[in-house]
């Protein structure tokens, strides 16, 4: 399976120890998370429906909202 991932460009060999090859990821965890989050939001029509669901199910806390507001302010995208 690892060799298939290597052929697809997802991992690369970094070194060889005896008969074992050592591999590492080609893309960063943050890059993959951003890509998956964008796909997820596209499927559900944006952040608002997802946020509404999280609020309705009690999975989004005031601390989460405050953290999101802080990140939004720091990114310079706060339009209020």
List the helices and strands and how they pair.
Blueprint: H1 2-7, E1 11-17, E2 20-25, H2 29-44, H3 47-56, H4 62-75
Antiparallel strand pairs: 1-2
Please summarize the sheet with the most strands: 2 strands, antiparallel
- Biggest β-sheet: strands ordered side by side in the sheet: 1-2
Please report the number of helical segments. 4
The structure class reads alpha+beta
- Using only CA atoms, what is the Rg? 19 Å
Offer a few descriptive terms.
about 80 residues, alpha+beta, two-stranded antiparallel ribbon, 4 helices, 2 strands, elongated
Short description:
This protein is α+β, with helices and mostly antiparallel strands and 80 residues long. It is built from four helices and two strands. Helices cover 57% and strands 16% of the residues.
Can you describe what's shown?
This protein is of the alpha+beta class and 80 residues long. It has two domains: 1-44, no CATH class; 46-80, no CATH class. Helices cover 57% and strands 16% of the residues. The chain is built from four helices and two strands. It has helices spanning 2-7, 29-44, 47-56, 62-75; strands spanning 11-17, 20-25. It has a two-stranded antiparallel sheet with strand order 1-2. The longest helix has 16 residues, at 29-44. The model has no long low-confidence stretch (mean pLDDT 91).
């Amino acid at each position: 399976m690892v060799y298939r991932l290597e052929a697809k460009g997802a991992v690369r060999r970094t070194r060889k120890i005896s008969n074992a090859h050592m591999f590492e990821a080609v893309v960063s965890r943050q890059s993959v998370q951003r890509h998956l989050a964008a796909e997820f939001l596209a499927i559900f029509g944006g952040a608002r429906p997802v946020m509404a669901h999280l609020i309705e199910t009690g999975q989004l806390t005031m601390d989460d909202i405050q953290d999101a507001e802080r990140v939004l302010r720091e990114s310079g995208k706060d339009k209020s």
